[in-house]
Write a structure and sequence with these properties.
The complex is a heterodimer. By secondary structure, chain A is α+β, with helices and mostly antiparallel strands. Chain A contains 23 helices and 24 strands. In chain A, the strands form 4 sheets. In chain A, strands 15, 16, 17, 18, 19, 20, 21, 22, 23 and 24 form a 10-stranded mixed beta sheet that branches. The chains are: A alpha+beta, B alpha/beta.
Chain lengths: 848, 253
C-alpha cells in the first residue's frame, strides 16, 4: 500500500506542489520566527552577561525598564565596597542614553532604534571574569573633549583616532565637539547589537550627566577568585546604606535581557500570526486538493477495494500521501525559514539592531516544530477527504459514473452557523462584558466566525453564484450559461476555494479599516488637541535636550512654549507611562479639559492628574493615593484631578515638572509645542526653530499638518508590512483557485471535448473558464470584505479606549479589493484555460 | 453517385505510430458522400472507419490527401476556421450521447446555436422537436432521461443548426434494440423529409439496413459498397470480408 501511495503522489507532482506551497509558507514563518527568537535570545544573553559585574549595587527599585535616572550613589561608597571581604575591586559606572554620535554623513549612527549609550569607562571585568568592553586601540579619554568609541560605531560613522566628532546629547549641552582618542570593543568578537557607546573620563561624565556631582549610577563589585556571586552579594548587602540594593550579575543580566526580549517579542508574535494565517488558508487548499484527488481516483480506489484492500487501508493510503507531502513541505519550509531569518536580520540591521556577530541559532526544537506542524496540518486537512474514501463501494470500480457520495450541505451549514453564532457570542462577551482573557476570547471568537462562515459558505454562496449565473447568461450567452452552471455544479468546492481567498481578504479589510480609522483618529486628535503653531519632536518621541525649548522661548515672535516629558514607571508590576508637564504653560498650546480638580494642583508636590480612562479602568477617584515605583523609589501620589482623555497626553498619569524631577527622572523633553505671539512673522519663527534643531538630526519642526503626517507615517509603514505579508496568503488562495480550476478542467475533459467538437472555439472555452475563475475570486473577496467589515468594527469597538475614536471605512479601497479580486480571477484562469484549450478534441471525446 | 457531393475525400492517407507498431488507418481512400443521402460506413475494428469519419468531420487531420466539405477544402484551415465549420456546417451524434450534464434537454439541443450566438428558427426548431418526439421532456436534465431519449436529444442537437452534413458514430451502440430502432427511424426521416445528409459509422447490419448506401472498409481501404441494402446483403458482405481476412491471415502465417 505504501508503494501505491508514493506512486500516486509522484504522478501528481505539480498539483501537490501547489498545495505544498501553503505548508512551505506556514512552516517557513514558524521556523523563521523561532530561529530569529533563539538567535536574538542568545545574542542579548551574551551581550548582557558581559555588561554586568559580579555584583551590581544600584538604587533600590530601579527596575530594568526604567530610564537612566538622576538618582545616584555617592563616590565615597567606593572604598567601603572595595573593602568588603571577598571583593577584589569596586568600580563606579555612569551610564546614560541619548548620546548620539553624528557620523560623517551628518546622520546619527544607529538612527533612532537601539540606545545611544554614553558614560564613563572602567576596565573592570564583567561577571564571572568575562572580558567586558576593552580598549582595542589608542588610550582612554582623560579630560573634557576626549572620548573613546566602540569599534562598530566608529566604523559605521567613519571615524578613527584623532578625528573630531560631533555629538548630540539630551543633556543641557545639546551639542558637543569631541576628539576620538580610543577605540573600545569586545576582544572575543561580541557586539553591542547595534547600540552605540561613547566613553568619557569619569569627571567629564559626571559634569555632563550628573550635574557635576561626584557620584555614580551604579557600582560593579568584582569577586575575588573562589568567592561566588551570591556570597559576595550577601556581604555587600550588609554594608549598603538604605535606598541601595545589591544584585548578582547573573540576576541583573537576566533582568535586562528578559526586559529587552519582552520588548522585541512582538516580532516573533507577528510572524507566528502570519504562520497561522498561512496554515489556515493552506489547509483549505489541502482539503480541496485531496477531495478532488480522491474524487478523481475513486475508480482506482474502488478497484483497490474490489481487489481486497480494506477501508482502513485505502484511507491510510491517502493519509500517507498527505504525510509525505507534509514532510516535503516542512523540509522546504525550514529552508524558507532560514531565508526569512536572514531577511529579518537584514531589515533589523537597517533599524540598528545588528545581530551580524551572533551565529544563527538552529535548534532541534525548531526542526521538530517545523516537522510537526508541516506533517500535522497536512494530515489533519487530508483527514476529511481520506475518511470519505471509506464510502466508496468496491462496485464503483465497474461503474461508469464516478461520483462520490456527498454528505448533505445542510449539516455543514448548520455546523457553520453554530460556529458563527458561538463565535459571535464570544466576541460580544469580550466586547461588552468583562470576562477573564477577553483578548483570547475575541481572537477565538473571530476564528470561530471565520471557520463557520467558511463551512457555511456553500450555502451562503448560492445567491452570489445564482446572480452570476443569471448575469453571465445575459452578457455571455451560452458560454456564460455554462460557466454559471459549472460553478453551481459543485458549490462545496467553489465555496471552499473561495474561502481561502475570503480569509486573506477579511484580514486585509480589517487592517484597512483599522488603519484608516487610526489615521483619521490621529488627524482628529491633532487638530482637536494641538492648538499651538509648531511642535519640535522626533517620530519615535525620543527625548532631547531641554535647552532646545529654552532657546525656542527666546526667539522673537514666540509667545509660549509647552514641554511634555515621558518616562516609564511601574505600578503593582505593570508598566505605565508617566508624563511631566508644566501646568502654567500646558494649555497655551494644548487643549486639555479637566473633568475634576484643577490643573494648577500639579504645582503641589506628589500630586497627580489621571485621565478619565485610567480613572475608570483602575477605579481611581479624586483624592485617592496611588503608589507608583519611580527611580527614586516607591512614592505615594495623590490624585488631584481627572482630565478628559487626550491622545497627546495618553500615558494617563500627569505630574508637575518638579514632582517629575523629584521622582528621579532626567530632565529630557519629548515634545515641545510652540505658540506664536499675535502678529508674529510665521516664516521667521519657523526658520528660527529650524536653525535650533539643525544639528539635532533626529528632531524636526512641524506644524499641525506635519505632526499629523508624522504620526500617520508609522501607521502606513505598519500597514504596508501587513499587506505585504497578507499578500502571501492571497498568493496561496490564488494557487488554490488555479488548482481547483485545473482539476475541474481535467474532470470535465469529455464535456470540453464535446463542446469543442460541436463548435465551441478556444477563445470561448477560455472565456468560460475565466468567468468561473472571476466568480470564485469575487465570491471570496465579497465574503472577505463583509467579514472584514465586521471584524474591523469589532476591533475598533475594542480599541475605542486606546484612542481609536473615529471609525473610518475606506470605501474606495474596499471597492478596489473587489475589483482586484476580479483581476486575480482572470490571472488565476490563465493556466487552466490554456490547458483546456489545448485539449485534443478527439482524445477528449474518447477519454472514458 | 447522384447530384453533388456533400463531402469528398481524395487520396486520403493516415498512419498512426511508427516502426513496427505503425498502423495504416487510411490507405489512399477516395470517397464521396452525396447530398441528401444516408450512408453507413462499416468494417471491422481497426478498419479505419472512425478515422475516416473524424477526418471528414474536421476533428482530425490526415497525413496526405484532400478533404472537402461542400466547396470548402479543409486542408490547411486554422483551428478557428475548423471550429466554425464544425459549429455551422457539421452535426455530431456520438455513441455515448455526450450531452452536457448541467444543461436541460432543450439547452443541449440549442447548444450549437447558442455557441454561435444565433437564435433558433422557431418553425425549424418545432419541427425538429416534433420529429424527435421529445415535447414533454425538454426541461429535463440528461440524467433524468433514458438512454434512447438522450440519444434523441443528441440527434435533435445535430439537426437543429441545419448542418450540411451529420456524422453519427455508432449512434445505436449503447441502446437497446427498440430505442435503437427509434433513433434509426428518426435519422431516416430526417433524410427523407428534410434532405439531410448523414454519414453513420456502425457495425450493426440492422442499422446499416436503414441507409441508402453502405461502404465497407478494411485495413484502411474501401473494399466494397452496397446500394439500398437490406440486412441479409450486409451480412453477406461482412461474412465474405471476414473469410477474406481469415484467408489473408492464413497466407501470411
Amino acid at each position: 500500500m505504501l508503494r501505491a501511495a508514493l506512486k500516486s503522489l509522484l504522478g501528481r507532482k505539480l498539483r501537490l506542489l501547489m498545495s505544498t506551497f501553503a505548508i512551505v509558507l506556514g512552516v517557513g514563518f514558524v521556523s523563521g520566527s523561532l530561529i530569529f527568537g533563539d538567535t536574538l535570545n542568545r545574542s542579548f544573553t551574551a551581550l548582557f552577561a558581559s555588561t554586568v559585574g559580579d555584583v551590581v549595587v544600584r538604587p533600590a527599585g530601579s527596575g530594568d525598564a526604567m530610564a537612566p535616572s538622576t538618582v545616584t550613589i555617592p563616590a565615597s561608597l567606593q572604598e567601603e565596597l572595595a573593602a568588603v571581604d571577598g571583593a577584589a575591586r569596586a568600580d563606579g559606572n555612569i551610564t546614560t542614553v541619548g548620546v548620539y554620535v553624528i557620523g560623517e554623513n551628518g546622520q546619527p549612527v544607529g538612527g533612532s532604534g537601539p540606545p545611544a549609550l554614553g558614560g564613563n569607562y572602567s576596565d573592570a571585568p564583567a561577571g564571572h571574569g568575562l572580558e567586558g568592553l576593552e580598549l582595542l586601540e589608542g588610550r582612554m579619554p582623560e579630560k573634557a573633549g576626549e572620548v573613546a568609541l566602540d569599534d562598530l560605531t566608529a566604523e559605521k560613522a567613519g571615524y578613527s583616532i584623532g578625528d573630531t566628532v560631533p555629538l548630540v546629547t539630551t543633556t543641557k549641552t545639546p551639542e558637543l565637539e569631541v576628539t576620538v582618542v580610543g577605540i573600545l570593543g569586545f576582544g572575543h568578537g561580541g557586539s553591542l547589537n547595534g547600540a552605540t557607546f561613547t566613553a568619557f573620563d569619569t569627571r567629564t561624565a559626571q559634569e555632563l550627566f550628573l550635574d557635576g556631582k561626584d557620584a555614580y549610577n551604579d557600582y560593579w563589585v568584582t569577586a575575588e577568585p573562589g568567592v561566588t556571586q551570591e556570597e559576595l552579594r550577601e556581604r555587600v548587602a550588609e554594608v549598603l546604606p538604605p535606598g541601595l540594593e545589591a544584585v548578582t550579575g547573573d540576576v541583573a543580566a537576566d533582568e535586562a535581557a528578559s526586559a529587552l526580549l519582552d520588548q522585541l517579542s512582538f516580532i516573533t508574535t507577528f510572524l507566528l500570526i502570519f504562520a497561522v494565517i498561512a496554515l489556515v488558508v493552506g489547509s483549505f487548499l489541502i482539503v480541496n486538493t485531496f477531495s478532488i484527488l480522491v474524487a478523481q481516483r475513486s475508480r482506482e480506489l474502488a478497484l483497490l477495494r474490489a481487489l481486497g484492500a480494506s477501508r482502513r487501508q485505502v484511507k491510510w493510503m491517502v493519509l500517507v500521501e498527505a504525510a509525505v507531502l507534509g514532510l516535503v513541505g516542512a523540509g522546504l519550509g525550514l529552508g524558507l525559514g532560514v531565508l526569512l531569518f536572514l531577511g529579518i536580520r537584514l531589515v533589523f540591521a537597517q533599524f540598528g539592531l545588528d545581530l551580524s556577530t551572533t551565529p544563527m541559532v538552529f535548534d532541534l526544537t525548531t526542526v521538530l516544530a517545523a516537522l510537526a506542524i508541516g506533517v500535522g496540518v497536512t494530515m489533519v486537512a487530508a483527514w476529511l477527504p481520506a475518511r470519505r474514501t471509506g464510502k466508496i463501494p468496491p462496485v464503483a470500480a465497474l461503474r461508469d459514473d464516478i461520483a462520490l457520495p456527498e454528505t448533505t450541505l445542510r449539516r455543514r451549514f448548520l455546523i457553520g452557523t453554530l460556529a458563527v453564532v458561538l463565535g459571535g457570542v464570544g466576541i460580544g462577551l469580550a466586547l461588552f462584558g468583562s470576562p477573564p482573557f477577553a483578548g483570547y476570547l475575541l481572537g477565538v471568537g473571530a476564528l470561530a466566525v471565520l471557520l463557520g462562515v467558511a463551512a457555511a459558505s456553500p450555502v451562503l454562496a448560492r445567491p452570489v453564484l445564482g446572480g452570476a449565473h443569471a448575469l453571465f447568461r445575459r452578457t455571455h450567452g451560452m458560454v456564460g450559461q455554462l460557466a454559471g452552471q459549472n460553478l453551481q455544479r459543485n458549490p462545496r468546492r467553489t465555496a471552499a476555494t473561495a474561502s481561502a481567498l475570503m480569509i486573506g481578504l477579511a484580514l486585509c479589510t480589517t487592517m484597512a479599516i483599522v488603519g484608516s480609522s487610526a489615521k483619521a483618529s490621529v488627524d482628529r486628535a491633532v487638530s482637536e488637541n494641538f492648538v499651538g503653531d509648531y511642535v519640535i519632536s522626533n517620530v519615535f518621541a525620543l527625548g532631547f535636550s531641554p535647552s532646545i525649548a529654552d532657546r525656542a522661548a527666546e526667539l522673537d515672535g514666540v509667545d509660549s512654549v509647552t514641554r511634555i516629558r515621558f518616562q516609564y514607571a511601574e505600578r503593582g508590576g505593570d508598566l505605565l507611562l508617566v508624563q511631566g508637564v508644566d501646568p502654567a504653560t500646558l494649555t497655551d498650546t494644548l487643549d486639555v479639559q479637566l473633568k475634576q480638580g484643577e490643573l494648577s494642583s500639579l504645582t503641589t508636590k506628589r500630586n497627580l492628574l489621571i485621565s478619565e480612562s485610567v480613572a475608570d479602568d483602575e477605579g481611581l477617584a479624586l483624592g485617592d493615593r496611588v503608589r507608583i515605583d519611580v527611580p527614586a523609589g516607591t512614592v505615594a501620589f495623590t490624585v488631584s484631578g481627572i482630565y478628559a482623555d487626550n491622545p497627546l497626553l495618553d500615558g494617563g498619569y500627569l505630574m508637575g515638572m518638579e514632582t517629575f524631577a523629584k521622582a528621579g527622572y532626567q530632565p529630557v523633553d519629548n515634545f515641545v509645542f510652540v505658540g506664536l505671539a499675535d502678529g508674529a512673522d510665521r516664516q521667521a519663527v519657523r526658520s528660527g526653530l529650524d536653525r535650533l534643531v539643525e544639528k539635532q538630526k533626529m528632531l524636526s519642526v512641524k506644524d499641525q499638518e506635519g505632526l499629523a503626517e508624522e504620526a500617520r507615517g508609522p501607521i502606513d509603514q505598519l500597514l504596508t508590512l501587513i499587506y505585504g505579508l497578507l499578500a502571501l496568503a492571497l498568493v496561496i488562495a490564488v494557487l488554490g483557485i488555479v488548482n481547483t480550476l485545473a482539476l475541474s478542467v481535467i474532470e470535465r475533459t469529455r464535456e470540453i471535448g464535446l463542446l469543442r467538437a460541436i463548435g465551441l472555439s478556444r477563445r470561448q472555452l477560455r472565456r468560460m473558464i475565466r468567468l468561473e475563475s472571476m466568480v470564485i475570486s469575487f465570491l471570496g473577496a465579497l465574503l472577505g470584505v463583509v467579514l472584514g467589515l465586521v471584524f474591523g468594527w469589532v476591533l475598533l469597538t475594542d480599541l475605542a479606549d486606546e484612542g481609536l475614536e473615529v471609525i473610518s471605512i475606506p470605501v474606495v479601497q474596499l471597492g478596489g479589493f473587489l475589483v482586484v479580486s476580479l483581476l486575480v480571477g482572470v490571472l488565476a484562469a490563465v493556466l487552466p484555460a490554456r490547458r483546456a484549450a489545448k485539449l485534443d478534441v478527439l482524445q477528449a471525446i474518447a477519454d472514458e | 453517385m447522384t447530384s453533388e457531393a456533400a463531402a469528398r475525400v481524395v487520396h486520403l492517407t493516415k498512419t498512426y505510430g511508427a516502426g513496427n507498431a505503425q498502423v495504416r488507418a487510411l490507405d489512399d481512400v477516395t470517397v464521396e458522400f452525396a447530398a441528401g443521402e444516408f450512408t453507413a460506413v462499416m468494417g471491422p475494428s481497426g478498419s479505419g472507419k472512425s478515422t475516416l469519419m473524424h477526418c471528414c468531420a474536421a476533428l482530425d487531420t490526415a497525413d496526405s490527401g484532400e478533404v472537402r466539405l461542400g466547396s470548402t477544402v479543409l486542408n490547411g484551415l486554422s483551428d478557428n476556421e475548423l471550429t466554425r465549420l464544425r459549429r455551422d456546417e457539421i452535426g455530431f451524434i456520438f455513441q455515448s450521447f455526450n450531452l452536457v450534464p448541467t444543461l436541460t434537454a432543450r439547452e443541449n439541443i440549442l447548444l450549437p446555436l447558442s455557441i454561435a450566438g444565433r437564435s433558433p428558427e422557431k418553425a425549424w426548431f418545432d419541427s425538429v422537436i416534433e420529429t424527435v418526439g421529445l415535447g414533454d421532456r425538454l426541461h429535463h436534465k440528461p440524467k433524468e432521461l433514458s438512454g434512447g431519449q438522450q440519444q434523441r436529444v443528441a440527434v435533435a442537437r445535430a439537426l437543429v443548426s441545419r448542418p450540411s452534413i451529420v456524422f453519427a458514430d455508432e449512434p445505436t451502440g449503447n441502446l437497446d434494440s427498440q430505442s435503437g430502432a427509434e433513433v434509426l427511424n428518426l435519422l431516416r426521416r430526417s433524410v427523407d423529409q428534410h434532405g439531410q445528409t448523414i454519414v453513420m459509422v456502425t457495425h450493426d447490419p440492422v442499422a446499416a439496413a436503414h441507409t441508402d448506401r453502405v461502404l465497407f472498409l478494411a485495413d484502411g481501404t474501401v473494399v466494397d459498397e452496397l446500394r439500398h441494402p437490406d440486412r441479409e446483403q450486409v451480412l453477406e458482405v461482412m461474412t465474405a470480408m471476414t473469410a477474406a481476412q481469415v484467408a489473408r491471415a492464413a497466407e501470411s502465417d
